[in-house]
Amino acid sequence: MRGIAVLVLTLALAVALAAPAPVQAQGGALIVQVATEPPGLDLTTNPSSAIAAVVFYNVQEALVKVDKHGKLVPWLAERWYTTDSKNYTFFLRKGVRFHNGRELKAADVKFVLERAVNPETKHPYRVQYENIQDVIVKDDYTISVTLKRPEANFLWTVARQGSVIYPREAVETLKTQPLGTGPFTVSEWVRGDRIVLTRNKDYWQKGLPHLDKVTFRFIPDPNSALAALKAGDIDVSGFGLGPESVDELKKDARYQVIVGDTTNDVTLSMNNSKKPYSDKRVRLAITHAMNKEEVLKGAMFGYGKILGSNVDPLNPYYVDVSKRVPYDPVKAKKLLAEAGYPNGFEATFKVAPQYYYTVRSAEVIVSQLAKVGIRARIQQVEWGQWLSQVFCLKPCENPDYDMSIIGHAEAWDIGNFANPKYYFRWDNAEFQKLFKESESAVEDKKRKELYGKMQTMLADEAPAVWLFMHPRLVVTKKGVTGLWKDLPIPSFDLSEVAWQK
Amino acid sequence: MRRYVIRRVAAMAATLVFVSILVFVVIRILPGDPALIILGLEASPDTVARLRHSLGLDRPLPIQYVQWVGHAVAGDLGRSVQYDVPVASLILSRLQVTLPLTLLAGGFMVAAAIPLGVFAATRHRRWGDYLTMVLSQIGVAVPAFWAGLLLILLFSVKLGWVQAGGFDGWSQGVWPAVRSLLLPAVALGLFQFAVLARTTRSAVLEVLREEYVKTARAKGVGEGAVLFRHALSNAMIPVLTVAGIQLGQLIAGSIILESVFYLPGLGRLALGAITARDLPVVQGVVLFVASLIVVINVAVDILYGFLDPRIRYE
After folding, report:
1. ipTM of the complex as predicted
2. Which residue does chain B place closest to A384, by CA atoms?
């Protein structure tokens, strides 16, 4: 009897040893540098992308996920259906547990959505949930949402960082100790220094995460970040490394560089409510005067992609309209003369040095504009001042600027141009009509067509000049695998990251 | 002596009140609505209005001031908007970095300045004097952050002796914590010795010209004893005053070094809070540091009174 037991055990051992060794090591720790410390950890009351970087998809998750390719995939909801884009039914995955041990049920989703709609909650994007009329729990794992008006974009709303599902009993501590269903839990937050995430052993995706521990270190200064990387104190430089370091690090065999896409559209804004920018010919002249390739090389060392309108390549409805108003300084001068400025005019760029790429771009653009007679100068303003003067936050009544440059990071923000009060102050009834149609269009094909029309119109009317899409620049030590190349959502997804053996 | 101390303390209280008003007003004139800056570009108007109310920004200024001061005296500096923890506890936790850093830097500064100052005084008008003064001028010209970066490049990236920055806390042991503060302390303190060295030099020179020193020399006391037993203790009085002022400079300079070495100190707390318009933290930190400097100067004044009897009878 004992002989057979030994035989069986030996066979089992042989089988176990013969199994192929994993390419990735299970376990291990990772130290990630980020530039900004999150102002709290509550995704449902603060829109800051610094929070999303740490919490979104690492600690808390949503029903639907935007994956690394920018596609919507089932996540906490296994599947869903809708026939009219007005009534949605979600079927939840079974057996998913929150970090406090309790299983995720439909009642939790109802609580989360209703809380988002409730004005008392101060949800930063409440306007996107206010279309929700009713949330009905059908059974423990089925929930249906009825909207007031058909909204094709609703799935994207459910996938946003503000829609993460958390247990209702933990709602008071969301800011300091967010609980969710994610692969990691927040185990330590040393204010001013680091946040430590530890692996969730009961994560619903078996085999993930690979890492045991992740430490986010806040290093705002790009020089310090580079020094820390070179000294080996950090494993990954997540955000804030300047493009000037990338070329040098690419040649270094100890590191690997990831250059990908983001949804951050760096835009040159013009005050459409002020002369001469109210004249379309002047705006087109400025666009024609712009050599965007040169701007990209000068400001970003060539990293990034040229844009023609407010939609970037990661968006499924992207159309390349960048050639519609090409670089043509001769035409620019002609248009300026037609508009009544044969000798050009003076202008001031208000930029916030907090975003280095805005100042660098402005420096290149000033010399390009000078060639067509526009004498521009750069005025660096502090972020608070930028917000009140350019972005015109209350109590500002009218924006006080000529031109400015800033990156708009929201994935779906073409609607800003349909808002005549937005700081561009562009009021075009036809565009507003197109946008409204696209919001209520139910068929994907129809939306795609409308988005194409909107992008073309933006390029032709030129309320702003879209310079480039800011690239994702991440540098890691050799051996770190599983990081996303592109950043369709502001999440620093670590669920599949591992050290290569 | 008692009257001297009382007068000094009364002056300190008046200064502190003035400082608190100044801090309060300056922060309120900063452009940009704090609530909007905290919530970001896309927040809705009623969210913003709610935050303004909870920050107390919709109440009249004098009332806001009185409320703030009233709580501050009791040790309650409010709650941080960013971190949602009491400001007082934030300051205390950051002090465990900034205080040792400043003291270490001060130590380096004094260790460099006083011997050099004495050396220069004894080599008055000879090459030793000029060399010391040139060195101190170079020290003044070197910006602290540049010195910090160079030190990181050499000792951290190239030699790998210390971490490039960061602070893991005293719980990991005293030596590792001190080690992570060494480079920043050197960058902060070592190059600052110029003013203190000059003060030492002139103070020692003056004392060496005194009658009693001539007497000592006439008695046959050796130059070394003259210097260390008779001259130095009297020369230290003005040096002490300047050192007190320099300490204040070091606290200010620590902000820059904390950014370069990404240390979680008071300076970085203040910097981050200003950008994020975390008003309670900004007010709390500025009030705290200003009070600290005022208190240090008053303490030095009182100490002065003990050391030099002539001053007490002013």
Report:
1. 0.71
2. B32
Amino acid at B308: D
Of A399, A404, A438, A443, nearest in space to A418 by CA:
A438
pLDDT tens string for chain A (501 positions)? 565 655 555 555 545 554 444 466 788 899 999 988 887 898 888 777 888 899 999 999 999 999 888 889 999 999 998 888 889 999 999 999 999 999 999 999 999 999 988 877 767 677 778 889 999 999 999 999 999 988 778 888 899 888 999 999 998 888 889 999 999 999 999 888 899 999 999 999 998 999 999 999 988 888 888 888 988 889 999 877 778 888 888 898 999 999 999 998 999 999 999 989 999 999 999 999 999 999 999 999 999 999 999 998 888 899 999 999 999 999 999 999 999 999 999 999 999 887 888 999 999 999 999 999 999 999 999 887 888 889 887 667 889 999 999 988 877 888 889 888 889 999 999 999 998 888 878 788 898 999 999 999 999 999 999 999 999 999 999 999 999 999 888 889 999 999 987
- CA–CA gap between residue B181 and residue A477 (Å, rounded): 26
| Distance separating alpha carbons of residues A282 and A442, to the nearest angstrom | 37
Residues in chain A, overall count? 501
How far apart CA A186 and CA A55 sit, in angstroms, is 9
pTM higher than 0.95: no
Say whether B36 and A39 touch across the interface (CB within 8 A).
no
Query: Does B141 reach chain A within 8 Å, measured CB to CB?
Result: no
Burial class of residue A365 (count of CB atoms within 10 Å of its CB; 0-12, 13-18, 19+): buried
Name the A residues in 214-253 with CB < 8 Å from any B CB: 217-221, 223-224, 227-228, 230-233
For residue B61, what is the enclosing H or E element? helix B61-73
Q: Which residues of chain A does B30 touch, with a Cβ-Cβ cutoff of 8 Å?
A: 384
User: Which CA distances in Å does A425 have to A83, A348, A398, A463?
Assistant: 38, 17, 9, 9
Q: Give the SS3 label for residue A179.
A: coil
Q: Is A234 helix (H, G, I), strand (E, B) or coil?
A: coil
Q: Residue A170, exposed/middle/buried by CB under 10 A (0-12, 13-18, 19+)?
A: middle
Helix axes B2-29, B61-73, angle to 10 degrees: 140
